[in-house]
Amino acid sequence: MSKTNLAYQETFDCVQCGYCLPACPTYKTMGKETHSPRGRINLVKMAAEGKISLSELEGPIDLCLGCRACETACPTNVQYGKILESAKEVLQEDRRNRMPKRVKMFQSFFFNRVLPSDTVLTMAGAGLSFYQKSGLQKATRKLGILKQFPENIASFEKILPEVAGPIRTKSRVQRAPVQEVPTYSVGFFTGCIMNTMFSSINALSIKLLEAAGCEVKVIKEQTCCGALQNHSGETKITKELAKKNIEAFEKYQFDFVVNSIGGCGAMLVEYDHLLADEPEWAERAKNFARKNVDISVLLSNLPLPFKNEIRKTVTYQPSCHMTNVQKRTNEPLELLKSIPGITYKEIPEKDMCCGSAGIYNIVNYHESMDILDDKMEQVKKVKPEIIVTTNPGCHLQMKLGVEREGQSENVQVVHLVELLAKSCEINV
Amino acid sequence: MDRERLIDLMGEIIPDEKRILTDQADLYSYSYDASFGFFVPDIVVQPKATEEVAKVMKLANQFEIPVYPRGQGTSLSGGPLPVKGGIVLDLSRWDQNLEIDSEDMVAIVSPGVITGNINAKAMEKGLIYPPDPSSSNIATIGGNLAENAGGPRGLKYGVTKDYVIGLEVVTPEGEIIRTGGRTVKNVTGYDLTKLIVGSEGTLGVITEAILRLYPKPASTQTLMALFDDLVDSGRAISKVLNSGILPAKMEIMDQASIQAVEAYRPLGLPTDVEALILIELDGHPMAIADEMLKVQEVCKEVGVREVKVAATSEEAEKLWRARKLVSPAIVRVKPTKISEDATVPRSKIPAMFQRLKEIKDKYNLDLVVFGHAGDGNLHPNIIADKRNQEEMKRVEMAVEEIFTAAIELGGTLSGEHGIGTMKAPFMEMELGEVGLDMMKRIKQSWDPKNILNPGKIFPEIGQRLVLTDE
Ligand SMILES: Cc1cc2nc3c(=O)[nH]c(=O)nc-3n(C[C@H](O)[C@H](O)[C@H](O)COP(=O)(O)OP(=O)(O)OC[C@H]3O[C@@H](n4cnc5c(N)ncnc54)[C@H](O)[C@@H]3O)c2cc1C
Ligand code: SF4
Ligand code: SF4
């Protein structure tokens, strides 16, 4: 792997107009062009031309959230995602050559084994939460790599959800009686972290889909979507996971593959980009990507049996993956607004990333907290009683934000699905 | 002076070391703007107080180090490029003060405030800040003042210079002066305010500005007119303006821009018309309803193919979308956009269109034309690929001819983007030897050591327009 693998040609699409600057959270909080989209694209170009070294590129790329708000803002359709992924991949390769062995071991363990493995995560899920007591945390402790982030972990410990264990294809999901002719046949994508930390949300999602008339199946052959690996520049592993998922879902005749995790959804809909240059996979990836939708896309088109009014002031923090990659901005919002009784208030600059961004908030804790504090300034303006998210990363981050503001008593953070279920009197 | 020492001395001026940037990655990030050219500075500093700027200028003077003020680097003419190395003064972080005084109807702002935010805040109090360059959501007011930026509303409301009544400026020698004040009327001495506006950061660093605000118009209405013949559209523009109506905006798109938009995001525009005009009227609803009828009449008289009037604000937005989509639409085929702003007297618009068509054919280039029809400020845009050196050579020649055409038709090199490095070689053509020399003398008396934004406006001996990396 070398500099030539940087998406050099793509950088020429940037006309350096600066339209993306106001959309970029790190430009705002870090205060220099170096941490702006325009700056990062230029630095990738400079590195490809050999004008700066890879180690000089590293900081600006590591501190990018990957929220891709810049892509949405760009008038000339610069493929920032592609440029960023290429830089991450090249840097990861470069780092692998320099990295201490222990860290290498942990990373490879985490990405190759922990995330995709049902057993490890299921073990972890047997009453244990992800960071609190999981095998992952033990593994990381043993390897000592998280020692440098004591504050981070302490912060997250407070906000972790109660873990109910992952969905078991058989025992957990009780099928609600499906109407005679199901509207759609749906394959449910559980997601590995979601299924461990937020399994109740998956369970509620399935029940809601069923209540709306879909036939839902959770297939065992599915695996991790690969998003976290991809964000860390582990393209090879990501591709393998993608192929496994494509193969798994191809065996069934689903109308849709549905997930309730913005981050995974974003990865799944981009499998076609990921595998574009592998002839035997490109078409299959395209078909798979097309079938993948966020749960809000289906539910906003189907009738839901609302029963209770929820008389609360509610706001919505969209996930970047949903807005800038899946490009679903209306569906979740319309769905939220359709809940009887709620008063919806919009957060100013709601499309700014909350700073969670995969594992960014763990790795770049202080930078992430600056971004979060900025976000909470905006949230405070609308005084919500409930903050709705659609992604576990955002969910935890917003909870942390509420905690940092000392508002845990007054402000609840929930997944959209939880609120819908409550109003429909659907329980886990 | 060596760089280490410069960094040390800077540390004594700027208390917060985070605002002194010296890493390679940082320096490379301040080496460009939205135009052409690439120059790496020695250091970047981010002042947030007038005193800091004054001290930096004094230091720079003492050691004769060039200093380049910079806003958000959206200049299309090379204005903030550190062409001779030295210090980039990044003023974009200095956006703390944005005060709207609705009684005096003025805004008082720090130099890094984003222009669009001034208008947004004024609107909260029923006022507007009219200058609306299309970059208003990204560019700083300091950059707008230095370039005397303008936008579609310039037709009725004028440009940046018409709204500045007072400035605080740090001179190239590091002295702090105030020009003008808070009153609209002020004839005390030379008008230094207007001299600084449009001086492209070569005469002083703007550290604060006092801007006039206007009452917000009660309502607006939009109309789109489609013409089979470009010359007819030119006649329509003149006739509307001569009929006693002054639209807030009057924009034109040529056939190539319409076709580009339709190929990119089909809006249902006919691609066989030669020109499209968008007109926005603002004022009292009854007055503009009446004017709207008159505009339609005039268009019919000159043989318009079709007129569409927006019934709602959503419809108006839809009509304006065509204009907004031009920029992204035209870079779809090739990535490099050379955006010019040569301006001609209004009556010469059809003639200018003709000249542009000839230039396009002669050099076999993708050239589209759109822009502010009402004030003759056209935006001929050439679409090319920076990596194709042969093509870029043709672009250089075409651009030279565009400038010549504009000046021959009684117009000017630049309506709003400024001279910077890009148009410096053509200055004498427009101003003549003496005209240019009078400007140089002003520069010399303000900046005897030529350290504030050197290499801009005035051509170096033998300087030519270069768009290729040689
Ligand atoms: C997509 C796009 C659309 C545009 N549309 C328009 C348009 O419609 N109309 C228009 O007029 N322009 C337009 N521009 C050009 C550009 O946005 C303007 O020239 C703007 O005023 C530049 O502001 P900036 O903050 O980016 O300044 P910069 O580009 O950083 O600097 C511009 C000049 O101002 C000087 N400067 C900056 N701040 C100060 C200060 N505080 N004191 C002294 N000098 C200073 C710099 O030295 C430089 O010479 C457009 C640009 C782009 C990329
Ligand atoms: S992905 Fe997000 S953080 Fe990264 S450059 Fe784009 S807007 Fe900024
Ligand atoms: S908006 Fe797009 S073209 Fe403009 S600077 Fe950003 S990435 Fe480049």
TrEMBL record, chain A:
Origin: domain of life: Bacteria
Record Pfam families: CCG (PF02754), Fer4_8 (PF13183)
EC number from the UniProt entry: 1.1.99.14
Cofactor: [4Fe-4S] cluster
InterPro entries named in the record: 4Fe4S_Fe-S-bd, 4Fe4S_Fe_S_CS, Cys_rich_dom, Glc_ox_4Fe-4S, Helical_ferredxn
Cofactor notes: Binds 2 [4Fe-4S] clusters.
Catalysis performed (reactions): glycolate + A = glyoxylate + AH2; (R)-lactate + A = pyruvate + AH2
Domain 4Fe-4S ferredoxin-type: 4-35, 53-78
Keyword hit for Zinc-finger: no
Alphabetic keyword roster: 4Fe-4S, Electron transport, Iron, Iron-sulfur, Metal-binding, Repeat, Transport
PROSITE patterns in the record: 4FE4S_FER_1, 4FE4S_FER_2
Gene Ontology MF term list: 4 iron, 4 sulfur cluster binding; glycolate dehydrogenase activity; metal ion binding
Function: Component of a complex that catalyzes the oxidation of glycolate to glyoxylate.
Protein name listed in UniProt: Glycolate oxidase iron-sulfur subunit
Species this protein is from: Robertmurraya kyonggiensis
Automatic annotation (TrEMBL), chain B:
Limits of the FAD-binding PCMH-type domain: 37-216
UniProtKB keywords: FAD, Flavoprotein, Oxidoreductase
Keyword Flavoprotein: yes
SUPFAM superfamilies in the record: FAD-binding/transporter-associated domain-like, FAD-linked oxidases, C-terminal domain
Swiss-Prot/TrEMBL cofactor(s): FAD
PANTHER family: GLYCOLATE OXIDASE SUBUNIT GLCD
Family in the record: Belongs to the FAD-binding oxidoreductase/transferase type 4 family.
Identification of the protein by name: FAD-binding protein
